[in-house]
Amino acid sequence: MNTKENKVNYQPLLLFGGAFGLFFAYWVSLIASKNPFIKTFDTAVYNAIKNNSQLEHQLTFYWTQLGNTLTITVFTVILVLVLICFRDYIHALFASLTMIAANSCNSIIKNIIQRQRPHMDKSVQANGFSFPSGHSVGSMTLALVLIALIVVLIKKKPLKTGLIAFCIFFAFSIGFTRMYLHVHWPSDVLGGWCEGLAFGLIGSWLFFKALAKQREKAESKSE
Hints:
Elements: H1 11-32, H2 36-48, H3 54-64, H4 69-85, H5 89-113, H6 134-153, H7 157-180, H8 186-222
Protein name: Phosphatase PAP2 family protein
Keywords: Membrane, Transmembrane, Transmembrane helix
InterPro entries: PAP2/HPO, PAP2/HPO_sf
């Protein structure tokens, strides 16, 4: 963990994070106002998703458990504790605050919008309001947190590329399972992805900025 960190051009992260944040705010307004486009969007996506295979249903059911609140929280706590043990305090602070901010915002919006879930299969249980999808927010934010840590801590390119690819797959596949199992509207998942991208990218921008300042201080002291 105490390896020399890779330099990153982090400036575009703020721009993209802000763009996703603005789109998410717009999406929230469409959901809150019950804009007809949302129903059209949800219907079109649902019609494109087929879940008639029992095997696919079972595999999707087990995979979606990896994105639930408990699993994401436990993994985040372990990650933060490991980073603290290696004295990577900026990394630990970044991971914990980004996850807390994203999930807190998600909880607040859920209780303000109070959107009801679609009619669900009785074999799948999901509690609380529907928008935004907590699984989608949590998995996407965690994926971006992990990607940022992978970029600065891992030097071997094949390993780095493989891990980043898995993080991206994890985030989008968890969101897909929520639609496939009909525990969330597709618009819930899209909103969750955008919220997670906004928090993850802006959090990563702050993280890389803090590392750059830390590096500058270290270089000035060594001169």
